Automatic annotation (TrEMBL):
InterPro entries: Cro/C1-type_HTH, Lambda_DNA-bd_dom_sf
Gene3D superfamilies: lambda repressor-like DNA-binding domains (1.10.260.40)
HTH cro/C1-type domain: residues covered: 7-60
SMART domains linked: HTH_XRE (SM00530)
Name of protein: Helix-turn-helix protein
Transmembrane domains' residue ranges: none
PROSITE patterns found in the cross-reference section: HTH_CROC1
GO molecular function terms attached to this record: DNA binding
Pfam family, one: HTH_26
Length: 99
């Protein structure tokens, strides 16, 4: 996936516009668009964008895996794939019960 499209997608997921992102970066939306239109934006710019979106920089290049896993929680040496809020609730219940 093109990183420009991915940044737009992450903005949509986070519920912010590119104008909001530009404001978080302390630049105008025109400057942000120029940065994104460049063939290869500087790593420093991409790091700032990732930080403003509160994501790992790698998420600006790749969509989440097709498995649907949003994240992984490790507890007592086991890894649990988290795909939804319900998964978190079930894991929390399991932890509270000491399982």
């Amino acid at each position: 996936m093109d990183f420009r499209k991915r940044i737009k997608e992450v903005c949509q997921i986070k519920g912010i516009t590119q104008k909001d992102l530009a404001e978080k970066l302390g630049i105008t939306d025109i400057s942000l668009n120029k940065t994104l239109r460049g063939e290869y934006p500087q790593l420093q710019s991409l790091e700032k964008i990732a930080n403003a979106l509160n994501v790992d920089i790698t998420e600006l290049f790749d969509a989440p895996s097709k498995s649907g896993t949003i994240g992984i929680i490790r507890h007592n040496g086991e890894a649990y794939g988290i795909n939804s809020i319900e998964d978190i609730r079930q894991l929390l219940t399991k932890i509270e019960k000491g399982e």
